[in-house]
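User: As part of a screening pipeline, I want to sanity-check one entry by hand. Below is the sequence and the SMILES for pyridoxal-5'-phosphate. Please return the complex as structure tokens so I can compare it with the automated output.
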Amino acid sequence: MNVGDNVGEPSGSAQVALFRLEELAQNLWWSWTPGARSLFEAIDPTLWRLSHHNPVKLLLELKAERLEALAEDPAFVRQYSAVLKSFDAYMAGKNNWTATQHPGLSTNIVAYFSAEFGLHNSVPIYSGGLGILAGDHCKEASDLGLPIVGIGFMYPQGYFHQRITPDGWQEAEYEPFNRLESPCRQVLGPDGSPCRITVEIGNRQVYAAVWRIQAGRVPLYLIDADVPENEPSDRELSARLYGGNHETRLRQEILLGIGGVRVVRALGLSPGVWHVNEGHSAFLTLEQVRELVQAGQSHADAAEQVRRSTVFTTHTPVPAGHDVFPSYMIEHYFNGYWEQIGLSREAFLQLGQHPDMPGAGFNMTALAMRMAAHLNGVSREHSSVTRRMWKPLWPGLPEDLIPIRSVTNGVHVPTWIAPELNHLYSKYLGPDWADRSDDPAIWHRVTDIPDGELWAVRQHLKRKLMSFIRERARAGWVQSHLEPAQVLAAGTLLDPEALTIGFARRFATYKRATLIFRALHRLQHLLQDRWRPVQIVFAGKAHPADEPGRQFIHQIYTFCKDHRFGGQVVFLKNYDMHLAKFLVQGVDVWLNTPRPPMEASGTSGQKAALNGVPHLSVLDGWWHEGYDGANGWAIPLPNHPLETEQHDDHDAEHLYRILERDVVPLYYARDRDGIPRGWMQVVKDAIRTIAPRFCARRMVKEYTEFLYAPAASPGPRAW
Ligand SMILES: *Cc1c(COP(=O)(O)O)cnc(C)c1O
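Assistant: Here is the complex for your manual check:
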């Protein structure tokens, strides 16, 4: 099997000299490599900005003359050669961590299944935290030399674009994304025609094509049902991420789980470990059991073998995050399949049964918990909540012995670090700091950075955010004919000198985006202090079917347009990775107010802290283990359980108090050089204590040691 090559034949001399630019653009390695980013930016800084940092698009739109001029430019050619040299060295990957620390794993493929991957904006196949975590995981695996292969969906229409009507309602717009402008290529079969897999879904063969995306050394294979062989309704199957009803969702999950295993086989891969990242793909376990049973094994032996090599990560305690399908639907789609895996109808349905709610339907998390021997939650707190939730699956076992580990989420440092800070860290932490991002000793050197230098970079990043916001507002005014109030709501009145709070995430109601509006007079007082002004930047999408989430956006948008708030509360539409980078790098404080214990981990606060933006958050998710009393601020948990309303009052009261007494005074206490010394202390503590622990390097190493290595070893049961 080889991968389709859509690079044209080089024609002019410029194309010959620079012919590997296309190859660089097609591997997302460039996106987390400063030298490669600068190279593409140098080609045409304006096109680079207009393409939202997408080199594939940049190269498509570039005039031939420009390329010829660059080929004649010795400085550019030198830069180009240097980038290629490091690219080749990276791809060859000698002496990587896996090869030296886990030689047994370095040839043992881990098949990592996820319904979404957030790698870069030019590949819009993610909606939020889950996808970005999967993307960061793959990038870090690539950096560590871990042989992971990602399996997911190509959604031809991606996730929705968010529009806000003048009166503040979110509207979802779907449009096909241009795959020619995206670093993905169709996988071809041995005969050179596009590769196809088939899955029987509801008495019909559904065909799917496979696309490949390369993230450094890690390939992702994406299933795409939009092929001419399919009925129109089947072609729609993978059109959108999390679109459609319950039944569409089930059909998608059959395609992902069962179809995904068939993709792996069609590619000729034999993974030693299968990672089910969230329950959506859990059918992959059944398909493997089917293969073994068809080869002559008993169901029990086959299931045991599959369990041993399967890792399952659960990502949320929120009920809506766990798919439960009605039994009749499962019966309809799996009629006939259960015999192929050696089970009766009843035994099959039992695989997805929640022990406490046997009549509730087929629960994908229950299936995954039963079919994987290696389980984890995504923070210490979340793992203990998960053990409590699922303890009926281990009757008689004390809660703390339930084998659900914890691997706390982390972020891929090279992806999320601001280039200006990367530069500063190279100067003070050492040129190899990014290769040692999980080493606390490296980060201890943050204390050596002069306050003034770090403060200057922080100020610069805030101005960068403000000009980005202004340019987007201007584009909205010019191109979309926004009303004046919308242009203000989009942030044109923001002040680059004022203390800026950022709040950006999915608008799931448990994240309580509106908490800070609970006592309007107190908020107004904070915002309108003439000497110490505060402003708040919001962004986030609500799932189109989440009516309460849309209401929250509407409420906030109404405040954004309200004269009383002086243009100091703003809402930025279309939160995605591109905007997220500007926000986590550019604001002063990162706010998070989930209703505990709903936030399994959260990662945006980790991205912020890495960039010197302290976290102000409810003690939930990763912050439980990240907060040390000096590296940010924590809204404490109430001493005893409270009803919803009282709990919100309690948390809002603490939030105002922390802002009024701690955050605002500290930020505005300046010395004679205009530097907020006390503030810089918190900034440095945040970077020093959070970066080494909540980076993807630490995370992927833990996955490897605690989950992949045991799953790959053919020994006895892990527990
Ligand atoms: C990091 C990120 C998220 C996840 O943030 P949480 O803190 O988990 O809510 C969601 N969306 C985007 C675009 C992100 O970059």
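Points to compare against the pipeline: The pocket of pyridoxal-5'-phosphate is lined by residues 128-129, 132, 505, 575-577, 580, 602-605, 607 (CB under 6 Å). The CA atoms of residues 289 and 302 lie 5 Å apart.
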